[in-house]
Design brief:
This protein has 22 helices and 19 strands. The chain is α/β, with parallel strands linked by helices and 559 residues long. It has a five-stranded mixed β-sheet. A four-stranded mixed β-sheet has the order 9-12-8-13. It has a two-stranded parallel ribbon with strand order 1-18. Helix 12 packs across helix 13. It is globular, with a radius of gyration of 23 Å. The two termini are 32 Å apart.
């Protein structure tokens, strides 16, 4: 039941795939120039790509410790269908690389953090040769704590930063406060840490901040991570066909809704609508731009964006959306889904396993993930999400011994599936945190409370999915990614981390709220057109010119 991130983590996917999902499942689931140049001093704005990035990036050396049952294809994760017995686990770190440093690590945490001297932390520390001291912070308010810490002079040795916290002054603080890891990892230097050498190049490219390789990434599939899940058991019983266009979906939604029976066709499907209509991603500022007839166009300027909002508005207006979703209450859409109150909801792909396992074989319960259709039928146009969206950073003034010990931790936790290191990282100590039952490792209560949101933040292997307790779900997840990956295109700034000038940092802050107001009928499409016009006049056109200069000077990512 070992699972690694199956797609780029975002604010919405991270909550679903770490503490909340893991505790719910018996056994658990781990879960300046505008461009060019480089150097430790870095730049305050822009990005690094092309030939300049190639000087910085680590060499790639694939790991061949264990071959996946389902090889990665079209940007998908690799898939493993079977648990590997402890006697057959291989070693990817034959000797301790740690040299005894004490490493203070600040990271987000959802739930109750375990005691700092717990046997899981002790066992991993002993295996690596370091002592980690975890400064876990509430994940719901992590941005506030992160901003305060980075504004101070007391920076922990390692700080975990999720991509959704890269707003305001955070990118500038990252460039100023964290070390350049290039002297330890660039080119063939990474071969001192073989598991890090097997991290995909595009994840490393995404880890260049301020002209230097500063982040240690959590790699992820670049295939869109939000899937439209449906109650396959109910669809079969009612004879519903999975819709293959936006119009078919509206028709099905009206047919399947019965407020009297307390059954609604769906929850809020705005994310799925954006994918059906081919809208550019909204989670990453750089990915929101694309070249159209030689001109950079932002997602909010496209006709597809307006059409997706209008379709979602019609869905809400039809009465097919659950009242709690309309009201925007905090009730989990997944709870409404498993209770049968809604038949379709969209969430991170990891929910396929989490919800199925949570139901514990409940008689008749089956969920599936719809292939995202093009809005008019036929093939969709999907856009790649970023290949990494969470990083571990090392403080800038750290001595070489500490930096190397941090990399020893990352190299250990980046061990691939089928290794002793991966097993310890994901499951802890046999007999203490898990036992083997029916050929499967199953976490006990201690394992579920202690092995959540810790060492996986410091480094991860290439994206894979492995649920040996539910191998059919593993296969379904990977094959869904492969099918969707066949229709996925990379936009010009894919794989790049870009620091925008601070004068434009908050330019688009209000658009998500306006989207929600429009689809719920509180605002009109005309209000969005006016907001876009205001955005352009208040800096959007200038920001476009700035991004275009990056593209003209350096080109797309190096990989």
């Amino acid at each position: 039941m070992t699972q690694n991130a199956s797609s780029a983590p975002s604010r919405r996917s991270f909550l679903a795939s770490t503490a909340v999902a893991a505790v719910a499942v018996a056994g658990g689931a781990p879960l300046l120039a505008a461009c060019g140049g480089g150097g430790q001093s870095g730049r305050k704005e822009g990005t690094t790509s092309g030939k300049d990035a190639r000087k910085i990036l680590p060499a790639f050396v694939a790991q061949t410790v264990v071959s996946p049952d389902i090889p990665a294809k079209n940007g998908s994760s690799a898939g493993f269908l079977k648990a590997i017995p402890e006697a057959r686990l291989k070693a990817s770190v034959p000797e301790k690389l740690g040299r005894g440093s004490t490493i203070r690590i600040m990271s987000p945490f959802w739930g109750t953090p375990p005691d700092g001297a717990n046997p899981y932390y002790r066992a991993v520390n002993e295996a690596i040769g370091v002592r980690t001291v975890w400064q876990n912070q509430d994940g719901n308010t992590y941005d506030e704590k992160l901003g305060a810490v980075l504004a101070s002079s007391e920076i922990p040795d390692v700080v975990v930063v999720p991509g959704w916290n890269l707003g305001g002054k955070i990118p500038g603080a990252i460039n100023a406060k964290f070390a350049d890891l290039g002297p330890y990892l660039s080119g063939d230097k990474v071969k001192d840490f073989p598991n890090l050498a097997a991290v995909p190049t595009d994840a490393w490219q995404r880890s260049i901040f301020g002209g230097a390789l500063r982040g240690i990434p959590m790699p992820a599939s670049y295939v869109v991570n939000i899937a439209p899940f449906y109650r396959a058991d109910v669809f079969d019983a009612k004879g519903y066909e999975v819709p293959t266009s936006a119009d078919e979906f509206l028709a099905l939604a009206k047919e399947a809704t019965s407020a009297r029976a307390k059954v609604w066709a769906c929850d809020d499907l705005k994310w799925t609508a954006f994918n059906m209509f081919g809208v550019l991603p909204g989670d990453d500022k750089a990915l929101a731009w694309d070249l159209v007839d030689g001109k950079l166009v932002h997602r909010i300027e496209t006709q597809e964006y307006l059409e997706a909002l209008e379709w979602t508005r019609k869905l809400f207006a039809s009465g097919a959306v659950h009242p709690d979703a309309r009201a925007g209450t905090a009730t989990d859409a997944g709870i409404r889904f498993t209770a049968g109150q809604v038949l379709v909801y969209n969430q991170d792909l990891s929910s396929w396993y989490a919800k199925t396992a949570e139901q514990g074989g409940r008689k008749g319960f089956r969920m599936g993930a719809m292939d995202i259709p093009g809005h008019a039928g036929g093939d969709p146009v999907l856009h790649a999400v970023q290949p990494a969206n969470i990083w571990a950073f090392v403080r800038k003034d750290a001595p070489e011994k500490l930096v190397r010990d941090v990399l020893a931790v990352s190299n250990f936790t980046a061990a691939p599936y089928g290794t002793k290191e991966r097993m310890l990282t994901d499951y802890g100590v046999t007999g203490t945190h898990y036992t083997w039952k029916g050929g499967l490792p199953v976490k006990n209560d201690r394992g579920n409370s202690e092995i959540i949101g810790a060492f996986d933040y410091t480094g991860d292997p290439a994206a894979y999915i492995a649920h040996p307790d539910l191998p059919d779900i593993t296969r379904s997840q990977v094959e869904w990614q492969q099918r969707m990956g066949a229709f996925t295109v990379k936009t010009p700034f894919y794989g790049l981390t870009i620091t925008e000038p601070t004068r434009w940092t908050n330019l688009a802050n209000d658009f998500e709220q306006l989207e929600d107001d429009i689809v719920r009928g509180r605002k009109r499409i005309g209000d969005m057109r006016q907001a876009v016009a205001d955005w352009k006049s208040k800096g959007g056109d200038g920001l476009r010119d700035w991004y275009k200069k990056i593209l003209d000077d350096s080109g797309p990512a190096a990989n």
